[in-house]
Give the backbone structure.
Amino acid sequence: MKVAVIGYAVSNLEWDAEKTREETVFEVAKSALENAGVSREDVGTVISASTDFLDGRTISNCMLIGGSGAYLKDESKAEEDGMYAALYAAQRLMAGVHDIALAVSHTHSWIFNPHQVSQYMLEPWFDRQNDLINGITLAALQARMYMEKHGVDELDLAEVCVKNLRNAAKVPYALRKLHDITVEEILESEMFSDPLTELMIAPPCDGAAAVVLASENVAEEICENPVWIKGIGNSCDNYLRDRDLAKLNSLEIAARKAYRMAGIEEPFREIDVAEITERFAHQELMAYEALSFCREGKGRVLIEEEMTEVYGDMPVNPSGGALAGDPICATGMIRLIEAAKQIRGEAENQVDGCRTALAHAQWGLCAQKNLVFILGDEP
Amino acid sequence: MGVVRYEGLPFVARFRWNTGKIMEKFYGGFAERQILAAKCENCGYTVVPPRVICPKCSSKMNENNLVKLDGRGVVLSYTVVRKKLDGKGGFVTLDKPEVIAAVKLNGADSMIFAKIGDVDVEDIKSGMEVVPVWAEKPEGRLSDLLYFRPG
């Protein structure tokens, strides 16, 4: 059973949103259904993605049932990123249980600093007792380990930020839109934990996203230009004390699975655009390598040669990526939506002749867990 | 903004954790200024702090798998922390930056994250050898291990 994306919506990404979480979810769910040309009655299953500990409440989906139109329907939740909700929804369709699924995701970061909350991802007896260890300082350790291994410098990291934040200037919903940003300004922004400065760290913010998926039974009937899910790969690495932080092994495995399913043999040549979740600047370079866009250690060459610019041979994050705004659970789902927009020809920074796109979501400290989708314009 | 914000919950949750037998031994070792690891009999992977399931091959381990490390280690990576979380969701700028490092202890296959002291931040390098600095009167508690220093 093949599955397609037939509709989507992204909320404005902001800080200290006035709308409640329920209102934001209602708006994206309604817009996505309208975008797909279906009604609530047509939807078989609704899968949400939100996280109890970021939401400050247990069973964080229970108050979203109304907003997402899930009441009296088959409903479930994927914790973590919204792309996992899309994966869950796609599996429900592939199983032949339903024909149309709605997947929604949201985080409102103003509720409580997500970096403080993510300390609860640490093993409690040793790591969590060290008040200097958190998602940012660990990412800084990962950055230096990767950079020293492969001769990457701070300028390369800053170039990633410049590319993404300039791309975001054209994206209406983005949080950090910095059309004229320079490498110097990235490097001179406030130092958090060296080598990571403020602008190299994805800014947690408030936002939501929704996608409508349809099975091959109905997709082409309902939608003029469905975007087909051609490949999926998912992989989770060890706890961070037991893995090589200088390499995104689980992303490499996830990508390999997705490529095999989609029949992709030469990713650099066959993929037209990639939308990835780079929570920190160095992770984008590491992802180039894990996604086999280049050989290990050569990620910096792609950014130095401008190959991942919108006009380059392998555009990455024309939407601005996570560095332009990180509504945590919605961030990966937005990458999926931006990848689908590229195939439909609807993206703000449109890549010419885009037929195959990659979307990536991550979760956990130092990108422990990774999910890759390959999308295409044909089933 | 004219929006009413509800501040906090009417209780503070300070979670307590059962450390389990193997971690009790690990802390107990601190009283003797000793760092214990668990060595898997099946695959040989040595993990510190010790665990009851091998992270590599999932074999069961217990107190009999404990081995003594000499405490010395090598810095794999480090970061100079300028902003730290205050435990209440705020970032505070440190007047005096602190350093944490990923350290591979001699004889261990996993790494630990530890504070580094007694050194100028400019002098810290990956590959540097470090040794633990213990409290004057160690009592078998986590707080006995103060930090690591070059040595």
